[in-house]
Amino acid sequence: MSTAYQIVVCGSIVPDPLQTLEPVSSPAGPALKNEAMLPSVLDPWAGHALFEAAHLAKSAPGSKVYLVSLAPKAKLQQVMMSLAQKVPFELVALDGSASGFTDTVETADALAAAIAAIPGLDKSRLFLFGGWESASRCAGSTLQIVGEKLGITDQFQGVDQLTVNADGSLEILERIEGGRHQTSVCSAPPAVFGWATGNLPEPKNNPQVGMMNMRTVMPALQKAKPAKVGAEGAAFASVALPNQLRETRIVKDATPDAIAQEIVEWIGK
Fold first, then answer.
1. Beta bridge partners of 8
2. Which of 174, 181, 115, 175 lies closest to 143 in space, CA to CA?
3. Under CATH, which number does the domain 6-226 receive?
4. Of 34, 37, 197, 233, which one has the fewest beta carbons inside 10 Å?
5. How many CA atoms lie within 13 A of 232 on its CB side?
6. What pLDDT digit, counting tens, does each position of 99-127 carry?
7. pLDDT for 143-202, tens place per residue?
8. Does residue 259 sit in helix, strand or coil?
């Protein structure tokens, strides 16, 4: 008999990567130019975590997926209109900044409090999913801090595969240095999983799933609690795009060995 899990996915929204992003200084600190006008999407790493969570929930009858998201309420609603058609989940929304300049600890505090307040939360059945990194914050530490605040010490980062064995133990495939993987074993939940790319494709849109999700998404957005997150106390001297450097020479009749040697010498500098 399989165990029914409670799978909580932490995921925020980020500007659509197809847009041109230009950092600027604002009275409130660093920001993106015309940030309010930029279309948003679910963070790609969080998307992998959500799809893996839905797959696990489907394989363990009775399991439930929660998506906990800290983002501006209006923008989050726009993203939910398309995301809700992908997989079944219950939204737990927090109304606050999704900027990449917010403090990791403040963000983790808000997320941990929202997760702890989920009705009927049972840590003995809890999986905490999220992105290994983030397309916005890219701190790589937010999920770890959330886990610690919830008292979850079994944490796995760079996860590509999670398998539940017949005895209920968990087999985890984690990325390590050198393009290799290591296999870890965890006896039982609770556990934290920071997902890399996983193995699953993006699910197709399902209008029926969308209608089911929207019944809970809209009320969740309406009662989203304000979350004050930022970077209070931090000072930014400037924000700018990295400088582009191009050094081009046109050389005729150079041998492959000579070209390779020059590249090696350039890298060595």
1. 66, 128
2. 115
3. 3.40.50.620
4. 233
5. 6
6. 777 778 888 888 999 999 999 999 889 99
7. 889 899 999 999 998 888 999 888 888 999 888 887 788 999 988 889 999 988 877 888
8. helix
- Domains of the chain, by residue range, sit at 6-226
Calculate the CA 263 to chain-centre distance: 36
Answer whether residue 135 shows pLDDT above 80: no
Quick check: helix, strand or coil at residue 36?
Answer: helix
Structure tokens at 197: 């790319």
The predicted-structure confidence for 9-46, as pLDDT tens digits, reads as follows 998 888 877 777 777 776 666 677 777 777 788 888 88
What are the tokens at 114? 């929202």
Residue 147 to residues 50, 83, 113, 225, 268, Cα–Cα distance (Å): 17, 25, 11, 21, 41
Residues 6+ away with beta carbon under 8 Å from 52: 129, 162, 195, 198, 200
Q: List the structure tokens of 227.
A: 């979350």
CA distances from 89 to 30, 55, 65, 68, 197 (A): 33, 12, 5, 10, 20
Q: What is the pTM of this model?
A: 0.80
Q: CA-CA distance, 142 to 133, in Å (whole number)? A: 9
